[in-house]
Design goal:
about 290 residues, alpha/beta, globular
Amino acid sequence: MASYWISFILLLILSFSSLAFQSPIHHRTNDLQARQTSLRHISNQSTALMMGRNRGLETRSESATPLEGGMILYVKAGPDGPSSIGDCPFAHSVRLVLEEKKLDYQVQPATAESKPQWLVDHYSGKLPALRHRKDAYVESAVMCDYVDFFFPEPPLKSSQTALQEQAEAVVEGFFPALAKYFKHTPDGDTADKELETILVEQLTKLEDHLTEHNPYLVGDQVTVVDLNLAPKLYHMTVGLDAFKSGSTSVDIPKQYPRLQAYMDLLFARESFQTTVYSPETVVWGWTNARQ
């Protein structure tokens, strides 16, 4: 009986700690792992979440799973303002996860002027942001984890935990290297070549990994790692041609055939075809970043 009340009190503390400023939107932590770790300590037998002590959040009753519907993804607006979706690869990765899960959601492009007040007040206006009824999350990785955890079919995390962690480490440095390279001007100078060398190192890591593990980064199963990387690879293909074609020595099809095959596979997925934005939108975004 004592353990029941201890667990019940822990649940109440957890619930009240998620509220902020009397907002109608529940102010959730951006660290979903910390939230999951806290929940793992609550007994299966004495909480409404009904979580198994031995398997943590992996076992739960239907009542613990948020209902489908009521999802709004706020994203950076495109060149035509609030009527168009921008080029953000992080927002794109969240859309890929939602599409793979076959979930209903609404995309709401937002400018600095059109962001909802709760997003400005409680999340510093950060985009992308996912609102699911009264819950709200920022940071794309947190959003992807949230969706994959509470809507587990199809699973987007591999049971090969070590291999998935290895894949995450392989891709970690890619986009920072790409962004620094694309933002640099003038193209082709000494500093530009140094940044290109750093990007080549990241591309070589991807090629080597895909040579051993394919067709996806964790083998036969597409995972959140692939869906996070796909939009960034798309930016690379567009940006190399738009900004670096006269100065770069990078030739993906010739130098990185495994990576090219991987990109072809990702870009052909229905989720990608449904959500991809035009090359012109990518060029618009990077043109602004290069100024």
